[in-house]
Amino acid sequence: MKAIKYLIAGALFAAVSTTAFAQEVSRDAQLEAIRNEIKANPNDPNAAKDLVKAYTKEYKKDADALVLLGNVYFGAKQYTKALEYADMALARNKNCGNAFILKGDVAAVSQDDGGEAAGWYQQAMTIDPKNPEGYMRYANVYRKRSPEESERALNELRKNIPDFPVEAEAAHTFYGTGNYEKAFEHFAKADKSKINEDQLAEYALTAMYIDKKDEALELAKYGITKFPENVSFIRLALINAIGTDKHADAVAYAEDLIKREGDKNAGDITYYGQALAGVKKYDEAIAQYQKALQLDDKNLKPLEYISEAYFGKGETDKALQYANEYLEKDDNARISDYDKLANIYMSLVKDSVDRQANFNKAMAVYDKVVTKFPQRATWAHSQKATAAFIAEMENEYPQLYKVVIDELENKSDRSAAETQYLASAYRSMGYHFWASKNDLNAALPYFEKLVKFSPDNSLATKFFEAKKAYDEEMQNAANAEE
């Protein structure tokens, strides 16, 4: 089990008087000084020795203060020292829940022992049931090992501390580990009006990451209203307005963002360009993309967006120019980027006088995919066949579909996507022989294979009806001759 990274626990102290507040400030200042000296001298075992001596003398009877010192050493990855102060705290107060939590953190991180960590967290839950950190740490240990046990701990937390924002904290934990589905599940259970600013931002990001862009946009808009000074919510609203095709709103968010933050952020400028392109202000969009390239010449994505804008304007020559430039310069271009270039060429096939030349260029793009991404060769072959079929290139697509069929028909470990490619090939070849060649007998085996994957396929149903009628007609004609 990989070491689990936990948030460092900190004891909660109420400032009940001016004197108590002054003591807390003094203690925090002392801890910060110790932390800075240890950080400045990471290889010196005696770093901050005098500061630590003075601190422990002043707080020798304060178990929680000793745990805070242990947390400083934990943060510096000096785990033996951290345990020393956790044990010292327990010697002062055997019911110090934060000391057990610190010992659990050390076990989880330094010893890579989730089981031992859970044991310490469970002790914290037992002897300090009003401390939420023990429950949260324990639940996190069992999140994957035993979801039921994790949920049991959270239910105990709900029972013992009803006002604690359990769902928001659980969501935050899942967010930190990249489990966005679970994070969203817990955020959705939380009272949106009671979660803090950072958690609301995480909630919106979580929705966006799992492609719930409508929810993400609404959360961002709520954040703008509740935390008007936080531009992160404006940026999230901009991104998700683009993602939900609310481009007019996206333009407004972009202009508000740039008004507040200036026009020196290449990412913001790029999003502004996308918003403008969405409302068909292509020239303005191109100007923003070019500005983004000037601000950050290492991010080449705006080149592709410029291509898309020119394509939107109907200027396919420039669209091709920038699409090719992007693919030539960006080694990290994705398969979908190659597909976009091929689609530009295919858009010229139907009505162009250079029909065959443009078709050949589109096919060459997919051939590059095969070379650059050999694991996606079948996808590229299927795309070639489909593009040719849609463009009614009858001299091209039968052979291209045959390549797909030969690759996949007898493959024992076909993926679901590959099965779809094969079914599409059967359907198109069946249609080719039936509708284009009027050869129902040649079409028959393709439709028979198709219905094994798609029994209710409407085209196959119509074909079998036509084939039955054809066979009956042929039989009647034969009978008449007799």
Question: Can you summarize this structure?
Answer:
The protein is mainly α and 482 residues long.
Task: Describe the secondary structure blueprint for this structure.
Layout: H1 18-40, H2 49-58, H3 63-75, H4 79-92, H5 97-110, H6 114-127, H7 132-145, H8 147-160, H9 166-176, H10 180-189, H11 197-209, H12 213-226, H13 231-243, H14 247-261, H15 266-278, H16 282-295, H17 301-313, H18 316-329, H19 335-347, H20 355-372, H21 377-390, H22 397-408, H23 416-436, H24 440-453, H25 458-481
What is the CATH topology descriptor of the domain at 1-164?
Serine Threonine Protein Phosphatase 5, Tetratricopeptide repeat
The parts where pLDDT drops under 50 for at least 5 residues are 1-22
Rg for CA atoms: 33 Å
Name the average pLDDT. 91
Give the H and E element order. Answer: HHHHHHHHHHHHHHHHHHHHHHHHH
Helix share of residues?
A: over 70%
Class of secondary structure makeup: mainly alpha
Reading off the top of the CATH hierarchy, the class of the domain at 1-164 is best stated as Mainly Alpha
Can you put this structure into words, describing what you see?
The protein is an all-alpha fold. Among the domains are: 1-164, Alpha Horseshoe (Serine Threonine Protein Phosphatase 5, Tetratricopeptide repeat), CATH 1.25.40; 416-482. The protein has helices at 18-40, 49-58, 63-75, 79-92, 97-110, 114-127, 132-145, 147-160, 166-176, 180-189, 197-209, 213-226, 231-243, 247-261, 266-278, 282-295, 301-313, 316-329, 335-347, 355-372, 377-390, 397-408, 416-436, 440-453, 458-481. The protein is elongated.
